[in-house]
Design goal:
Elements: E1 16-29, H1 34-44, E2 49-57, E3 60-67, H2 70-80, E4 85-95, H3 100-110, E5 115-124, E6 127-134, H4 137-144
Antiparallel strand pairs: 1-3, 1-4, 2-3, 4-6, 5-6
Length: 145
């Protein structure tokens, strides 16, 4: 599994839960090359995309990603005048067994912690690590502590 990140938090059925840098959410036009332009802007500033997921609907796309440097990413978007959201994230490493994610997601939901973004970070035969963002991270932290 992945080496522990800073801020480990105890959670039932999880191998480890950790604090993670910010998840950024940006809107893009659904045009060829838009994702490449975003990746180049970040790369030109020395920012690596550690995890990414996106979905297109009509002529727009929403992209969620974890950059290697949140400060540089934030400044880039501000300099461009681009709209973006950033959200505190937590990670959970779960064993690769049926129902593990369901157990964690139910406990979070029962506490009123609504998951807004779920990104895979690493997966293997023994388990996987996920980054999660929430409408109210304090509710999630209550469950995870």
């Amino acid at each position: 599994m992945v080496a522990p990140r800073r801020g480990a938090v105890e959670v039932p059925n999880a191998q480890e839960v950790n604090a993670l840098p910010t998840i950024f959410t940006v809107g893009l036009r659904q045009d060829p090359g838009e994702l490449g332009r975003l990746a180049k802007l970040l790369g030109d500033r020395g920012v690596n995309i550690e995890s990414i997921a996106g979905v297109a609907h009509g002529d727009h796309a929403i992209v969620n990603f974890i950059p290697s440097d949140a400060d540089v990413t934030r400044e880039l978007f501000k300099d461009l005048g681009a709209g973006f959201d950033e959200t505190e994230a937590l990670t959970a490493s779960l064993p690769n067994r049926p129902g593990e994610l369901a157990t964690l997601a139910k406990a979070l939901g029962d506490a009123g912690a609504n998951i807004t973004v779920l990104l895979p970070l690493e997966a293997g035969p023994e388990g996987g690590e996920f980054a999660m963002a929430f409408e109210d991270a304090s509710k999630a932290k209550e469950v995870l502590e």
